[in-house]
């Protein structure tokens, strides 16, 4: 997904635009990956609080669509935070994801991440 993101991010830009350089989308990708792991950990900790200690997380962790949409939402947060010209639903089109699954993960993220700015929560609610 990272390679696809970088490829799509650099397409359709003038050759003198800074995002044509591959380092630009890679930096955004790295921020998105960091946020992905932070949110994944928060989600698992939140589920642990709700469920008994012997709850098996493998069912959740084996769902590719969950990881893809969580990662896409993290990238959307990064893109929006840096005032990119890429506006939603660009990330869905770039990564070929269905809006329904993306919508489902937004509520989870807003619930488990208390460090999101008010502006970011508004953006995700608008999405």
UniProtKB/TrEMBL annotation:
Pfam family, one: RB_A
Domain Retinoblastoma-associated protein A-box intervals: 1-127
Record-linked PANTHER family: RE32990P-RELATED (PTHR13742:SF17), RETINOBLASTOMA-ASSOCIATED PROTEIN RB -RELATED (PTHR13742)
Protein name: Retinoblastoma-associated protein A-box domain-containing protein
Record lineage: Eukaryota, Metazoa, Ecdysozoa, Arthropoda, Hexapoda
């Amino acid at each position: 997904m990272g390679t696809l993101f970088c490829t799509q991010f650099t397409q359709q830009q003038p050759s003198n635009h800074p995002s044509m350089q591959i380092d630009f989308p890679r930096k955004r990708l790295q921020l998105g990956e960091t946020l992905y792991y932070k949110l994944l950990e928060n989600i698992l900790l939140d589920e642990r609080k709700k469920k008994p200690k012997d709850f098996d997380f493998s069912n959740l962790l084996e769902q590719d669509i969950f990881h893809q949409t969580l990662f896409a939402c993290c990238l959307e947060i990064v893109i929006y935070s840096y005032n990119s010209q890429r506006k939603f639903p660009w990330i869905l089109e770039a990564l070929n994801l269905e809006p329904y699954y993306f919508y489902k993960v937004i509520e989870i993220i807003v619930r488990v991440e208390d460090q999101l700015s008010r502006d970011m929560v508004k953006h995700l609610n608008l999405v």
